[in-house]
Design goal:
3 helices, mainly alpha
Amino acid sequence: MGALAFGALLSVFFAHGNEQATGVMFPSIFLIAWVAPICRAEYAQGFVIGMA
């Protein structure tokens, strides 16, 4: 559910031209990966569906 929300927010900010938010959110996925396991297929699928 978190990856879905993250992907949806990232695409909304990108569509509205908010470059500052997308510039911070995209690299933060690597910081989140150190804390939470995001390598599962369900997380990647939620992120892609959220961006669609």
